[in-house]
């Protein structure tokens, strides 16, 4: 097997036991526990979810390397995915002394792969938290659909922005192996998964902030017909 195949097999083998650990932690959390015990179980569940997300990142990277990645599209609430990422990363942000500010509407629906889109948002958000100094701020903004033409395609578009107040980082250093460690998937991989959805990723440095990474996604896939 190729390296990508090996990674895929390892990822699938890890997914089932991790899912079992998370499931039992959820059962324990709602049982008759003391507050201290419940906090311990929440730590187990939270870190189990983080490990499962790393496994999912491994699987996505393997599929991209093998040229077999295709989004598993479904009707997806991007706002709920973004809110879940904020919830998962809040403890780490609090420990780092970084304020995590969500600006997320109640609901933003699109056609997309929920697991992969959550990985992309989580990866960018986690990287921003890690590179932002204590006392800084990371903002996650999700904008509802708007009409527009991009790259010659007339679609309704959703925008996700992750902005931090850390030192400005060039786009070329936002991968997982450069001097600035952070984006678990690496920005090129995030960009590839977003591109597979018909979207794009851009990096800029707005006044008064450090780095802003913007994901733009069509509400529908490029092969789907617009609906009223």
TrEMBL record:
PROSITE patterns per the UniProt record, alphabetical: HIS_KIN
Q: Which reaction does it catalyse?
A: ATP + protein L-histidine = ADP + protein N-phospho-L-histidine
Q: What class of enzyme is it?
A: transferase
Q: Which Pfam families match?
A: HATPase_c (PF02518), HisKA (PF00512)
User: Which intervals hold domain Histidine kinase?
Assistant: 9-221
Q: Does the keyword Phosphoprotein apply?
A: yes
> EC?
2.7.13.3
Q: What UniProt keywords apply to this chain's record, in alphabetical order?
A: Kinase, Phosphoprotein, Transferase, Two-component regulatory system
GO MF terms, alphabetically ordered: phosphorelay sensor kinase activity
InterPro entries associated with the record: HATPase_C_sf, HATPase_dom, His_kinase_dom, HisK_dim/P_dom, HisK_dim/P_sf, Sensor_HK_Regulatory, Sig_transdc_His_kin-like_C
Q: Which GO terms describe its cellular component?
A: plasma membrane
Is Transferase among this UniProt entry's keywords? yes
Q: List the taxonomic lineage.
A: Bacteria, Bacillati, Actinomycetota, Actinomycetes, Micrococcales
Predominantly, its location class is membrane
Q: What is the name attached to this protein's record?
A: histidine kinase
What compartments host this protein?
Cell membrane
